Structures are given as structure tokens and as C-alpha cells.
Amino acid sequence: MRLLPVLLLFLLSSLTALAAKLEVSAPDDRPAYRLFTADGKPVSFEKMTKELATADVVFFGEQHNDPLAHWLELQVAKELAQRKAGQLVLGLEMFERDVQPLVEQYNTGELDDKAFEEQSRPWPNYSTDYKPLLQLARQQKLRVVGTNVPRRYAQQVARQGVASLDALPTEEKAWLAPLPLVVDYTLPGYQQMAKMFGGSAAHGTAGPGLQQMIAAQALKDATMAHFIRQSRQPGQLLLHINGSFHSDNHDGIVHYLRQAEPQLRIRTISTVTQEQLQKLDKENLKKADYVLVVPADMTKTY
């Protein structure tokens, strides 16, 4: 009779272990996203954000119409706000330098939602995709910085070339990266732009029109890098939200930032879509320090 309790205990332990094993080995049911390192190794959100918190600047490269990326940006911002209490700055491509006073007034509560949205030229998907970040910043008292060049100057460069910026009034030049703007047409991202339009900027076959388009992109990258540097104090972490193309392959904004401050600890996240989420597709390896993979058939915001 004494053996019966022992046998029952053994049987219960075995069943518990088996259930745990089955639970661990069961396949995920339609995962919404996956995170990978640059080498394609799965990584947890907690491990990623712990490492991001050691950086000076973090670039979260998004697809502008991807709701999952926008949601995860908010989660990253919340986590980094805790890990870097009082030392987190939020930078946004989505707001241009000439509306920075409005961004600051909204952040401090001087402007209400209606006035801010009427005057600051927010993107069409602002209310669903970026407003939660600004609301978090107000709640957590995080500084918010619009880093992008006013669009009219990028359009001017695309039409007339970089030299046309020299004639701008001094007060308007304050919204741009310092001039003269140096464009390295051999950067992989800019070469990719050239190929999209059937040219090769690096080998002089792009033509002046295409080179001006690339220079307009470079003006955005250089301006964002400039105001990231200007807005971040020693010891602070600046989380910058931008389109993936601006920071993929440590290119674009990262290139200009490293030129100015090579010692900065920079980490990047890129958002990609894949048909499957089990492993990182070959073309997405090394794209960023961390890669956010979302399903190719995920609903888009526009």
C-alpha cells in the first residue's frame, strides 16, 4: 500500500513534464510578428530593448503604413522610457524643423490637439500611427524633436539642384543641415535609388535629374542627422522614428551621423514583410541590428 502514493506521485510528475514538453513544442498560432538579430537569430523584445538602452541613438525604421510597426514603436518607447528614466528623447521624421516650436508647445500642453493638428502639417495617418507617441511623451515628460527638412526645400533640390539652397535667407537655412551639402552618390541606398530609375549615380549614368532626386534624399538624411546631434545631450538616448530606407544597412541618416560623431553608439531596427516568419529571409540579413518581420498580408493603414 505504501507504493501507491509513490506511484501516483511519479505518474503525476511524468504527466506534468509531458504536458510542459508538448506545450513548448507546439507551433505558434499565427504569430503577428517576429524579431531577429542582424544574423537572423530570434531575439526577445526584452533582450532587444535591454541592449538598445545602452545606445546613444536608436533608429526605428518603419514602413509608414504598417500598424504593427507603429504599435511596436510605442512599446519600445515605453520600455526605453523606463530603462532610461529622465534621459529619453523622441525624434520624429514626421515633423519638419519649421514646426518645431509647435511640437514643443503641444508637448508642454500650451497647444491643444485641434490647434496642433491644424498648424503642424501632420501626416495623414498621424492620428492613428504617431499621435500615441506624442501623447506618451506628454505623459512621461519626454522631449520631442521634429528632425526633417521642410519638404519644400527637398522639392527645390529635386528640381533645381543643391546649389539653389545657397540663395535662401539665413533664417531659413537654420532649418537645414549646414551647407554646403556633400552627397556621396556611392552609398548603397543612393545607388539603389538610381537603379530604381534605371541609372547609376555612382558611375555618372544617372543624369542630372536623377542626381538631384538623390541629393534631395541626402538633404533629408543630413538634416535629420544634424538635428539628432543638436537635440541629444551626453548621457541621453534619442529614439528616432523614420522610414526604413533612411537607416537600413546603417546608411542614410546613420552615414551622416557617423561622419559627424564616429564615437556614437548607434543601434538600428528595420521593418520588413515576409511570407513566412520562421526565419529571416536572406535579403533581410544584416539590414539592421534588429529586424522586425511582419506578415506580408498584414492589413495596412493606407
TrEMBL record:
Name the keywords, alphabetized: Lipoprotein, Signal
Residues in the signal sequence: 1-19
Could you name the domain of life of the organism this protein comes from? Bacteria
Limits of the Haem-binding uptake Tiki superfamily ChaN domain? 48-257
> Which protein are we looking at?
ChaN family lipoprotein
